[in-house]
Every structure is written in C-alpha cells, then in structure tokens.
UniProtKB/TrEMBL annotation, chain A:
Cross-referenced InterPro entries: MetI-like, MetI-like_sf, Phosphate_PstA
Keywords of this entry: Cell membrane, Membrane, Transmembrane, Transmembrane helix, Transport
GO MF entries: phosphate transmembrane transporter activity
Superkingdom, taxonomy of origin: Bacteria
Organism annotation: Salinimicrobium sediminis
Identification of the protein by name: Phosphate transport system permease protein PstA
From TrEMBL, chain B:
Function: Part of the binding-protein-dependent transport system for phosphate; probably responsible for the translocation of the substrate across the membrane.
Annotated InterPro entries: MetI-like, MetI-like_sf, Phosphate_PstC
Name of the protein in its database record: Phosphate transport system permease protein
Keywords, alphabetical: Cell membrane, Membrane, Phosphate transport, Transmembrane, Transmembrane helix, Transport
Superkingdom of origin: Bacteria
GO biological process: phosphate ion transport
Pfam families linked to this entry: BPD_transp_1 (PF00528)
Main location: membrane
CDD domains: TM_PBP2
Record's bilayer topology term: Multi-pass membrane protein
Coiled coil: none
Location relative to the cell: Cell membrane
Length: 284, 292
C-alpha cells in the first residue's frame, strides 16, 4: 500500500470511529431508557401517581414527591426569574466597561461552575439556620433559585445580544428612554430566547437532588406540602431513597418514578427546543 | 421626573446583578466560618496527612486523603473515557458530518446532559455494574469503575459541544491551506485544526474535570460509602460529595463536629473547582481575543 492509499484508509477509519463515538452515548442512553421502561412501565398507573408513600413497595406512590417538585418549580421560578432577567438586562444594556462589570462577568462564569452540592451547604446555613426557614419548600426554592441564577442570566444575555442593533437605534431615534427601549422593544423581541433559557434552567432544577438532600429535604413526607413553610420531598429524592433500599419492589418503583421524571425533563427540553427554533427563524 | 425614574430603574437592575456577588461572598463566608470552627478542633496537618476518614465512628480520624482519592479516581476514569470520545465526536461533527446529520445529532447529544444525575446513578448501579461483573468477577457491587464510566457518558456532551465550537471558530483559510497541500480531512484535523483550537479544547476538558469532581448523585449511588485510600477501581470508595450526602441523610446535630466536617469537605471541593474554573476562564478570555 502506498502512502496516499494509507492516508485515505486512515481517514475513512477515523470517519467510522467518529460515527461510532457519536452514536455511542445515544445508544447507551436508549438501552438504559429501554431497560427502565421494561422494569417500570407496568408499575405506572393512576394509583402510583396519587398514592402517598408507604413502607410496602406495592402500595407506595409518588404523590407527595410530585407535589413537592411542583411547589419547588413554581417558587424557584418566582424567585429566580425577576432577579436573573434584571441582572442580565443590567449587564447587557446598562453596564459600562469597567472593573465592576468585568468582576460581575468573572463571578457569574465562576458561579455557573460551582458544584450544586455547595449551593446546598450555602442554603443549609443561610436559609435553613440563619433565616430560620427550616427544611421547608421555601428554603429549597431559594437554594435552587441561586443555583439556576447564572444559567438564567447567561441565556437571557444571549437572547438580548441577538436583537439587532437597528431596533435599539430606531427606538432611541423616536425619543424613547433607555428603559422604554428595553421594556417595549428588547424584552418582547427577545422573549422567545429568554423563555428557552428559563425552561432549560427549570428542567435542571427539577432533576436536582444533592442540594435538597443537604438542606434536609426528607425522603418520607406523609402529606403533600400545603404552604411554603411545609417540609417536602421531591421526585429525585424519592427515587434516590427507593434505589437505596434492598427490596426488589422498590427498584421497580424507582424505575417507574424515573420514567415520570424523564418524561417531565424531556418534555421541558422539547418545549425549549421548539421555542428556540421558532425564535431563531424570526431574526434570519 | 423621567430622569429620576430611569435612575431608579438602573439602580434596581444593578442591585439584581450584585446579588450574584453576594452569592459568591455567601458561599465563601459560610464555608470559611464552619471550616475555621472545624480546624479549631482538628489540626490542619491531620486533615491533610491522616490516611483515614472516620468522623462517624467512635475512633475518629479526619484525614481528607481517602475522600480526595475517591473523588480523583472516579473523575479520572470519567475523563479518560470522555475526552477521546468527546473529542472524536467534535472532530467528526465539525469536519466530516453532513449538515443534516449534524442538525439532528446535536440536540440528541444535549439530551445526554439533560438527564438528571440521580437517573444516571440508577443506570450505573442496575445496568453497568452487573454488566461489568460478567467479565470482571472481582468487581464489588459498589465501585468507582462503573460510577466513573457513567459519569463519563454524562460529560461527553460538555466536551463535544465546547470543542466543536472551538474547531468551528478556526478560520476557513487555515482549513483550505491544509487541503491545498493535499492533506486528508484526518491530517487536517489533527495537524492544523486541533492545534489551532487547542485553547478552546483545553477549556472544555478543564470544565469537564470540574464537573466530574463536583458530581454527586452518580457516585453517591454507585461508588459506595466507604472512604479508603486506594487506586483500585473495583472496590467501594467514597467521594467528597458522597460523604456530604451521607451525613446530610443522617441525623447530625447542628454545631457538632460531625456537622462541621461537611463544610471542611465542602471547602476542599470548592477550592478545587474554583481553581479549575478560574484557569478555564482566563484561557477562554485569551482565546476570544485571538480570533476576534
């Protein structure tokens, strides 16, 4: 074999290797989802969703955990959204290039890399102990809100950045103030992108386990939370609890609960991708 | 009047941005205070050199090394698996794949990163470990090998998407020059594009390491809860993060020494990830200037 043929052969071999690698993760994920479906799907029925937790695997349900997750999602959104969007507007539209703004930039990029369990330690000390919220839904929501704040800020900035400069210039030319430009032109124009980022951030929050375990969320809660100060559990913690039990019945429960958690996560991701595609085509 | 309103709005927005500074300050203050309290009772030399970590037993030892070795071992396995695969994916997608394939495969890869980590933990424990046990007979049911491999699957998309961005940013003139000299795509990729995009690729690897070190649920579920100083991937170990989870699940009194151990462990973890994130930020900043 001469040199050219050898190089072409290597090139083709790498191409196959590339396809193999690209499909590897996806195939493994499909195998896994398949095996979970086989294990868990027979366990899912209306009773499983509406039953309270129980010591007996076949009677246990995910009602309290599911309601806990819904509470956490709603409160986290209420807390993180205004702060995150306001911070992004400041950084993208108002901040001048100075020491403060570059400090803010470094800081946000660093926060995005802080492990989630560290946020749990922060929440445990500040919200649970110092502010005396206890291991409540509210303390959990504040903790997760801080966790997703960098994601909301980064994606909102990207969305604002994508609005063409001509829209800003036109608004200013008509005599609008900075805030009028932001609130009446930029926010509506970038809403699709902002929405995408928020849904992705929330899909992250709904799957978070570690920080909520650290602040003291319980695996066994007899009733669904009725106020922000109630104790709570969430789906991932319920799954973790079932995984750590030896009986086979609980493993099946865990598989069934995972199907529901994955369903929620994938639906949120699909919605986000849909909004992103629709919004991206708007500016092209 | 309008000026006043604008000024108030600007200050409100600024204060929202300052919340992020407060979060960082809060993390550092909280971890430091509890860690200082911890080091009043345990000498820092013991903490760094003792080879046993047994704060929950009667014979207490507070050496961080076993937790650190568990963390580094699982992360190492994950990185060794994910870097070659992730890099190959990025080269394939950016240089070989047809546009249509690329459009469908990218969201699918992103899905890998969207799966909650507790789910990956279940995968490691119930699918990967039993599978590996069929040809590694000595493999214990909790081990760092399967936790590390599954963690590798999780971080593949981080490496592949960031590296692909970096490869994509390399100017086309370099590509064309390579082809003009008669090189194949493979030669072009490894001799021109990868070196040119090296800073971006290094950033993606550093961020992946930082992600692996801080990962909690996969290792808490699949790697076990036995702190031990070992490089053997077939036996149970405990990572820093898994230890924090273990203590949090138990009934530990606020203000006790056991309570403070999780902050001492936490600050160790924070220092590691903080250094990695800072390095990657600096490289990224330099890199940005290079092509703009």
């Amino acid at each position: 074999m001469n040199r050219i043929k050898k190089n072409r052969f290597k090139d083709q071999a790498f191409k196959l290797w590339g396809i193999f690698c690209t499909l590897l993760g996806i195939v493994l994920l499909s195998i896994f989802i398949g095996s979970i479906l086989v294990d868990g799907i027979q366990r899912i029925d209306w009773d499983f969703i509406t039953s309270l937790p129980s010591r007996k695997a076949e009677r246990a349900g995910i009602y309290t955990a599911l309601m806990g997750s819904v509470w956490i999602l709603v409160l986290t959104t209420i807390i993180a959204l205004p702060v995150g969007i306001a911070a992004a507007i400041y950084l993208e539209e108002y901040a001048k290039k100075n020491k403060l703004s570059s400090l803010l930039e470094i800081n946000i990029s660093n926060l995005a890399g802080v492990p989630s369990i560290i946020y749990g330690l922060l929440g445990l000390e500040i919200f649970v102990r110092v502010m005396q919220m206890g291991a409540s839904v509210l303390a959990g929501s504040f903790t997760l809100a801080l966790l997703i704040l960098p994601i909301v800020i980064v994606s909102t900035r990207e969305a604002l950045k994508a609005v063409p400069k001509s829209i800003r210039d036109a608004s200013f030319a008509l005599g609008a103030s900075k805030w009028q430009t932001v609130s009446r032109q930029l926010l509506p124009a970038s809403s699709g992108g902002i929405l995408t980022g928020i849904i992705l951030a929330l899909s992250r929050a709904v799957g978070e386990t570690a920080p909520l375990i650290v602040i003291g969320a319980l695996a066994y809660v007899p009733f669904a939370p009725e106020s922000p100060m109630d104790e709570f559990s969430v789906l991932p913690i319920q799954i973790f609890n079932w995984i750590s039990r030896p009986q086979h019945g609980f493993e099946i429960n865990a598989a069934a609960a995972i199907i529901i958690l994955l369903f929620i996560t994938f639906v949120m991701n699909a919605i986000a991708v849909y909004f992103r595609n629709r919004w991206q085509s708007k500016f092209k | 009047m309008r000026k006043l309103k604008e000024a108030v709005i600007e200050k409100t927005l600024l204060s929202s941005a300052l919340v992020t500074i407060a979060v960082t300050a809060g993390i550092i203050v909280v971890l430091s205070i509890e860690a200082i309290n911890f080091f009043r009772e345990v000498s820092i030399i013991d903490f760094l050199t003792d080879t046993q970590w047994t704060p929950l037993f009667t014979d207490k030892h507070f050496g961080i090394l076993p937790l650190l070795s568990g963390t580094l071992l699982t992360s190492f396995i994950a990185i060794v698996f994910a870097v070659p695969v992730g890099l190959s994916i990025s080269i394939y997608i950016s240089e070989y794949a047809p546009q249509s394939f690329r459009k469908t495969i990218k969201p699918a890869l992103e899905l890998l990163a969207a799966v909650p980590t507790v789910v990956y933990g279940f995968f490691a424990l119930t699918v990967v470990t039993p599978f590996l046990q069929t040809f590694i007979p000595g493999l214990s049911s909790f081990n760092s090998l399967s936790a590390g491999l599954v963690m590798g699957i999780m971080i593949i998309p981080f490496i592949s998407s960031l590296s692909e961005d970096a490869l994509h940013a390399v100017p086309n003139s370099l590509r064309e020059a390579g082809y003009g000299m008669g090189s194949t795509k493979l030669q072009n990729a490894f001799r021109i594009l990868v070196p040119a995009a090296s800073s971006g690729i290094i950033v993606s690897i550093i961020l992946a390491i930082s992600r692996a070190i801080g990962e909690t649920m996969i290792v808490a579920i699949a790697a076990g809860q036995q702190p031990r100083l070992t490089l053997d991937p077939t036996v149970p170990v405990e990572t820093i993060t898994a230890y924090i989870v273990q203590v949090s699940l138990g009934d530990v009194q606020h203000g006790s020494l056991e309570y403070r151990t999780i902050f001492a462990a936490g600050i160790t973890l924070f220092i590691f990830t903080f250094l990695l994130n800072t390095i990657s930020y600096q490289i990224r900043k330099k890199f940005r200037e290079k092509y703009e």
